[in-house]
Amino acid sequence: MQFSQALQFRADITIQLYADPHNPHLYLERGLLYEKLGFSDLAAADAYRALSLLESVVDPDGCEFHARRNVDSPEKGPSATTPGEDATNDSDDEDEDEDKDDGTTPITQEEYDVLVGPVYALLVRSLVRCGCYRDAFEFGVRGLGLLGDLARQTKEAAAAVTALSEQMEHIKQVYISRTDASNQLPWNAIDSSVLPAQGSARRVLYPWNQHEPDRRAPETLQLLNDRLVDVAPKCEVRAVALPALHDAIPDSSAEPGVSVQLGLFAKEDIAPDEIILRESSLLTATNRLHDDLCDACNAPLPELSAAEPPVGCEGGCADTVFCSQSCHDAAQRIYHGAICGFEDGLESIGKDIPDPKDKADYLYLLLLGRALAMSATQDVHALDLPEVKYIWGDFHDVDLDHEELGSGSSAEEDASTSLPFSFQLNILQPTRFLEEMGLDPYTTLPRYDTWVLNTLYAKFRGTASGRLSTWDGGPELCAVHPLWCLANHSCDPNVRWEWGGEITFRARTTAERPVWTRKDERKQCHVGGIAKDQEIVNHYCDVGLPVKKRREWACGALGGMCRCERCVWEAEE
Ligand SMILES: C[S@@+](CC[C@H](N)C(=O)[O-])C[C@H]1O[C@@H](n2cnc3c(N)ncnc32)[C@H](O)[C@@H]1O
Predict the structure, then answer these.
(1) In the predicted structure, residue 339 carries a pLDDT above the cut 80
(2) Per-domain residue ranges for the chain?
(3) DSSP readout, 161-221?
(4) For ligand 1, which residues put their CB under 6 angstroms from it?
(5) What ipTM does the predicted assembly reach?
(6) Where do the SET domain residues begin and end (predicted)?
């Protein structure tokens, strides 16, 4: 099968899924195709959907969503009925009536027996390929426990036991490499908390993503410049050639080593200390519980005794408080409408994070939750939200059309896998968000499929600003400001940024421009203010640090080691 043919099959099955969203056969089929296409992350997500639906066959009362398939969907598995036949001979009359009403039939125990093995095998194999060993191990243990007896009855289950055992052996080797454990160690002695939970996925523009604009097209620049008129009247967006900082195939339309992107430029001279940009955004997130910040803009709440006291949620969400009536009204219109009344369930997701190392990653999850709420409230696809659509995603430019099918390379071998990916943050918790919002994650697949979530994560990781807690220094707030984030980085920046209720850029004075230092040499290269046509350059790290430390800090946001003039000079390159 050619890559393009596999892509077409993926498109066909996806359309079938939209019409038959609780059918685990189709998720398994699409997951296997994703695996062939090299998207192990998406394969894992589909395998997990299939598994969650299959659980309803053996535990119908414990599951909210039940595995069913359209009666006229193609026959799957040995016991599946032909169209028109009654699939539920042993079910009661009431069930049969329901089937006729909505044209679906429950997945039978026989179908379950055939599907569950391959589903576990795909899930564990895909998580291993992504480097998510902890969850792979836990599903492996569950799968092997469940399939033991079944393996004597169906060839599918027997093959799955063999496949799972191979994966468990691989995971054991990862465990041994991180501990002093001996090769004789039995699986049940593995402490899964030692295994890494976070792996990575491809950070690419999915070939089927129809939402990404041509960011360099004149109409895009015009649209962004129209938006800048109020936010930063002296600034303009222009295309700019930057050094390409990661190894993936560089921009095919640019010189080697160059990445043509967008940047902010001064349209006229700007005086030192002048504020040149003020932007507010409701695409924000905080991990503080029961906060004293505005739910919408994250500004501090006014005192209760203030002339204009805080405003509570009109729907009665007790912990959702706004700094003003205008933030309240904007929140209802922009993100709170769809989640009003669901506060209790939603509050429990992603906030109380025991390990401080995970806090930043969970803030991105909360930002994702806000984007889902915006999408549902405004009835707009999340990738078409104005805060999201035009922002940078740092996608690797992989020539997918010439990829070999089913090469099965792992995340470690593939340079484009720079998107942090975990079962919790990319699969489980987003599903919980949707369920707590009162949405069915299967029927809402066209809006909230995993590739959509991964694209949102890629965009947020390339552009969000963060704020640290004043008492433990950990990250506690983050936001996407879609115009502010168009400014590129320099270790000799000409602006400072500050973020309260709104984010601002202020032109640096001469005294605020850093002094470049190497060995005994020191020099100041720039004066304050910004001349017409100069690029506005922000700072993604603390520019008071030495070059090595600055490069380490900014590496994540830049996608590689900084090569700005100051870094190159200070590192003597
Ligand atoms: C927040 S965005 C900045 C705006 C972006 N250029 C755009 O087109 O929207 C961050 C990305 O810009 C690029 N970038 C910013 N400063 C850079 C620099 N000094 N050198 C190379 N790339 C830079 C990196 O690709 C980084 O991931």
Answers:
(1) yes
(2) 3-130+133-196, 287-378+416-479
(3) HHHHHHHHHHHHHHHHHHS---TT--GGG--GGGS--EEEE-----TT------TTSHHHH
(4) 242-243, 245, 261-263, 392, 394, 462-463, 485-486, 488-490, 558-559, 564
(5) 1.00
(6) 233-541
